[in-house]
């Protein structure tokens, strides 16, 4: 089965995306999927099966896995124990090719990132040595998250014991030009979500007709383009709410919506509750 291409929303003011899940905020399943971003996943405990490319790898006491971009995979975590923790760190290839390249001192980190294109599964000792640093992500600001990731990668490059799942680089089931075109679309939405997004404008930039553009996007992601845009904008709205922006109208406009009832409808569609309910839950006074 061909994987679905997933869009990773890395905030404009950050080089990485970090999501932390416990047993109550379990990572929503995306099924068999692929994305251009590198992905480092920590699962504290429990058992499961890693489905990565053509390989399957069982684990019984959590796992720590590092994937290069464009490697098809299924979800990794489990709900075996109430104290389980899953941390997912994702970053784009320019993190390696542009940002880290400026520092020769980080050569070891660059090598372990490059090696992740073979899909690395680290041993239990390595995972347990790093669990406190992964747990720390949830309480850090963007600068702290970046420094914490560099510390983790430094440890992995020096002391990490891992097994590559593949002897050579994994070849994507998608053509390079297809992936490049989809990355352009994701980047366009990331840069223009606050403005009016026109299918005719973005399709012309890709030298496609609007109908060809819509067919291409549906083929690659199994979803309509404007559904993707709305979900992306709602994810941005959640970011704004979580940054102590509590005026719903401001968040609505900043995330690209102009109609309050439509914003509420889309927010409930993707978050399960209305914006006002989300704010009440997040900022409810503690006793």
UniProtKB/TrEMBL annotation:
SUPFAM superfamilies given in the database record: Homeodomain-like, RmlC-like cupins
Keywords: DNA-binding, Transcription, Transcription regulation
SMART domains linked: HTH_ARAC
Keyword Protease set for record: no
Domain HTH araC/xylS-type, residue spans: 183-281
Source organism, top-level taxon: Bacteria
PANTHER family, alphabetized: ARAC-FAMILY TRANSCRIPTIONAL REGULATOR (PTHR43280), TRANSCRIPTIONAL REGULATOR MTLR (PTHR43280:SF27)
Protein name listed in UniProt: AraC-type DNA-binding protein
Species the sequence originates in: Flagellimonas flava
